[in-house]
Amino acid sequence: MKKRRTFDIDLPEEEQTFPAGKDQPPSPAPRRSPMAAAISENAEALRDRRALEDRIRAENDALAAEHVRMKRLGLIVDMVALEAIDCWKLVRDRAKGDDLELAELVASIRDIGLSNPIRVEAREDGRFELVQGFRRLAAYRALLAETGDAERWGRIPAGILPRGEDLEGLYRRMVDENLVRKDISFAEMAMLALNYARDPQTAESDADRAVAELFKSAGYQKRSYIRQFIRVMDRLGDDLRFAPHIPRALGLKLAAAIEERPELVAQISAVLRDWENRSVADELEVLRKAAGQEADAEGQGALPVGTGAAKARPAARAKTTFQVASPLGAAKCTAANGRLEIKLDRDFSALDRRKLEAALIRLLGDIA
């Protein structure tokens, strides 16, 4: 019997059929190994992280640029310790004498707080120089002295200006802010122009030209009034206790009278010099008499006699300003008739009294 031979036959795979109108499904994606999948997922996560970091970096750059812009404008406000603020760089516009409205400002700040921060300039030594807000700073210092509450009144809100702005620009900042104040007087504006011209660190030494630089925002007529008040304050500023109360009309008339009759300066000084208990009305009465606004029976412009001796002074008193270097820093000095003023970035009240007295005795002995 013959054996049947067996053959291996490769049959084609059975073809799949689909109903009419149906699409053939896509071929399944090739299967990746676990390592390849992990590498792909990690790369995708790194791309997302880099994109997020780029967005954060761009936002930080924009915030930094905005911070620099606002800082240049003095709009960055921080709480600054009163003891870290100095008032040496700029000569303030406030005339010496009384400040009748400071008590009102103190009461307002005590009740509702400070609505308008002061402005200071940052210094290299970490301290700050006052640019705007002398009265607000004075009010905070008064509240600190009154209450002893350093937690509440030991620091003041301050817009911080960056270092590097020229001195003329800082003066302009102070002046422009004060021009919108209703209570600033022509006498105070005149004193600011005088002090600006006397400051050894400013380029301008003529007070009249200083008015044009400092008060650019003011009208021509107002600048003209300030220049007339300069005539009065330059000659009588040291003797006037209530200069901010001089009305505009009286100041203009007094300036004209002094130009016409220079001897009036000595007469006014003689009356006011030792009259310690005079009032605002007393001082204004003396000035009115000198200006010829009122006449008495003995002659126009006769001055009332105060409690002090009527010893004549020179009609014009020269003033010398200069700056000297010292181990404590640059000292600004003003020398005038009967007055020697030294301004230095140092708290002299903290010095030992005997040491300070000895230094003054040596100074006076050397110039005697």
Q: Could you characterize what this model shows?
A:
The protein contains 12 helices and 10 strands. The chain has 368 residues and is of the alpha+beta class. Among the domains are: 108 residues, Alpha-Beta Complex (Conserved hypothetical protein from pyrococcus furiosus pfu- 392566-001, ParB domain); 48 residues, no CATH class. The chain has a 5-stranded mixed β-sheet. A 3-stranded antiparallel β-sheet has the order 8-9-10, with no helix packed on it. The chain has a two-stranded antiparallel ribbon with strand order 6-7. The longest helix has 39 residues.
Q: What topology does this entry show?
A:
Elements: H1 34-72, E1 77-81, E2 85-86, H2 102-112, E3 118-122, E4 128-132, H3 134-147, H4 150-153, E5 155-161, H5 167-179, H6 186-198, H7 207-214, H8 220-236, H9 248-260, H10 263-272, H11 280-291, E6 295-296, E7 299-300, E8 320-326, E9 329-336, E10 339-343, H12 353-367
Helix pairs in contact: 2-3, 6-7, 6-8, 7-8, 8-9, 9-11, 10-11
What is the CATH-assigned architecture of the domain at 58-165? Alpha-Beta Complex
**Rounded average pLDDT:** 77
CATH class descriptor of the domain at 58-165: Alpha Beta
How many β-strand stretches?
A: 10
Q: Do you know the CATH topology of the domain at 58-165?
A: Conserved hypothetical protein from pyrococcus furiosus pfu- 392566-001, ParB domain
Brief write-up:
Helix content is 46%, strand content 13%. The chain is α+β, with helices and mostly antiparallel strands and 368 residues long.
